[in-house]
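Field guide to reading this record: the first block holds the primary sequence, the second block holds the structure written as discrete tokens, and the final block holds curator observations. Each block starts with its own label. This record concerns HlyD family secretion protein, catalogued under organism Lysobacter yangpyeongensis.

BLOCK 1 — SEQUENCE
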Amino acid sequence: MIRTRLLLPAILAAALAACGTDAPQALGTLEYDRITLPAPAAERIVEISVREGQSVRAGQSLLKLENTRIDATTKVAQQEAQRQRDALRELEAGARSETIAQARAQLAAVQAQARDAAAYYERVRPLGARQLIAASEVDRARAAAGNANAQVRAAQAALLELENGTRRERIAQGEAAVRAAEAQAAAQEVTLDKLNVVAPRAGRVDSLPYRLGDQAPVGAPLAILLAGNAPYARVYVPEPIRANVKVGQKVSVFVDGRDGAIPGTVRMIRSEASFTPYYALIGEDAARLSYLAEIRLGDAGADLPAGLPVRVEFAP
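BLOCK 2 — STRUCTURE
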């Protein structure tokens, strides 16, 4: 095998010499942009709408995953978002008029209790001073009056809080909770929508690794597409001709098994040298640097498959 690889450059060089052309050239293969569609969730495949090799348009459904669990989780998230919105509206509305009326009634009740406790204390205080009643009874009356006054202040503060409405900080917290719940619901909706796997671009189905009923793990490739209407040539440009290769330059592409040249245009060439496959090394080029380039083909190459070897000639 190693001997075959060592001889391949010489064989290619002889083949190129037989072509009888002195035009600068580079070797490579036909390629397509590959798009991998990963599994968004570990769910069972319930429908496959395409087959391998079929052409698809952008947005076309390729396959569907079971959505029972994700749909239920999405509904829970949506209901939680609605609950948070209702809670925010309650904070913004403030206390009900009935609640404020109840707080006023409670304030009036404790005020009455405070007046009664204060009056009792005023009655027993002189009696205690003349030692007509026990000192402990006077102390209890004084404590009851003080406790009643404290209850009045507490009821007044509670009424004032209701009348002033909800603090801005609590409303801000409610708004943040609503945004968080809505974001969670939106994320679940996106996951639910991804269970219907669609083609992001027009192309051809290259591979469907899983079959109907399979349950792929999260991130596993459910479908692989070859995007674009035609392949492009990926070639390695030898260092001696790199300076004369420009983006937009017209070239001639020769495909093994296809008669005649296919017009092409250089769409990209790397500025840094890269590793060169053994099949792209020709004669003296084996000791030189090569630069990866991509050649866009015309409509004449639309029906060509990926992987075919190509030879690109640059105008001298």
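BLOCK 3 — OBSERVATIONS
Helices lie at 2-18, 68-93, 97-129, 135-164, 168-194, 239-242.
The longest strand covers residues 221-238.
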